[in-house]
Amino acid sequence: xxxxxxxxxxxxxxxxxxxxxxxxxxxxxxxxxxxxxxxxxxxxxxxxxxxxxxxxxxxxxxxxxxxxxxxxxxxxxxxxxxxxxxxxxxxxxxxxxxxxxxxxxxxxxxxxxxxxxxxxxxxxxxxxxxxxxxxxxxxxxxxxxxxxxxxxxxxxxxxxxxxxxxxxxxxxxxxxxxxxxxxxxxxxxxxxxxxxxxxxxxxxxxxxxxxxxxxxxxxxxxxxxxxxxxxxxxxxxxxxxxxxxxxxxxxxxxxxxxxxxxxxxxxxxxxxxxxxxxxxxxxxxxxxxxxxxxxxxxxxxxxxxxxxxxxxxxxxxxxxxxxxxxxxxxxxxxxxxxxxxxxxxxxxxxxxxxxxxxxxxxxxxxxxxxxxxxxxxxxxxxxxxxxxxxxxxxxxxxxxxxxxxxxxxxxxxxxxxxxxxxxxxxxxxxxxxxxxxxxxxxxxxxxxxxxxxxxxxxxxxxxxxxxxxxxxxxxxxxxxxxxxxxxxxxxxxxxxxxxxxxxxxxxxxxxxxxxxxxxxxxxxxxxxx
Length: 529
Prior knowledge:
The chain is mainly α and about 525 residues long. It is built from 22 helices and 5 strands.
């Protein structure tokens, strides 16, 4: 190890300390020891870095792979050259296995550098795409010293640390690897350390962001963001709906397809029912469940407010409720069965929050009546109450930190006067932080969907990022993206949405007109500009 490289890394550590305080030991929370001795967590439970996972025998390789999989690893990114080491990807579970794992090779020559900066960006994009799909990544080369730490250093730099601070942080993390005892400083070569120091790259897929972005400040922008976020989430999720995360290429655009074979930009029942609700609110200038019912029936029979001219994606629970309401003449026809506490109502409820955002308590109460038209399971109603409270808060300008605080309320005393049921109260207190995102993505219940939306909202850097994260989880991708799209849209507004997405979005002008109508109604009721 050269004296210049040691001096370089020490100077970076001193510089980082002078700007960020005393050095920290590697962050390895209890319960997250590295599964292999010569490995370390970059993000505990999510991104692991280390050495080649193979062994001298196939039995030994299987054993080491099992240790990684038992730690949750389901995505392997290999930096070694083809034929450099014995291949192991054939030993990984296939895409249809219960614990499916994916494998990607991004080769860099041993002791070397990427051939171009663009190659490094591609490697970092692959890591971030896997993390956005909530996969658990193991990045490795041969010994886990040079190439692996070169990439991790650049990954840290791209997330805002800057070269010197990234190099210092890299070496703090490296100290958790057993190999650091014999090789105390990384990356391996001076050229690799210089590459990290100079690396700029493009911004990470999900840089940290806590507060709303520019342009989100007006109620008009937030109403627009809420409704467009819902529709774009539904449309974006179509390509991944019903599919397991990691079994499809990471979504970056509106692709269409899915169970309903929709064209790119088209959406399903989530958006159609939300637009029926928005039209009812703005045209009647009131919360009228009977009128909402009639509009849902016209959508079901005639395709009104459909992206394709026909009813697409109606659930069995909604179809039963609409049929029951016709013969009972009671608009509140949703089932009370706890098994029907679906996420579906959360994906359409946003318009009532915008319509009544001047009166948060009224909005929360109205949400219950709007949901009861198709669902009356208590947990579904309670999830809608808390979600609408969040949406109202976002529309009224609450920061991301405020919205994610335990038991958020847009007005004092709301939950004391009308307490939440235990299942939703736990979510509101922060139980969502302990949820498994992929399990929540496929489960149908409202409580899990609410928690997943909060988790995605916390991790997302803006509306677009939140939508991509939700869609790339697969399974109930359209509903999950529509739910978080409403919350992120109400918080961030719609100014950063890709122009290409908006151009493809079905009935975009009509959606914007309804958003305008919701904003106007909110203004008439005393909401801000």
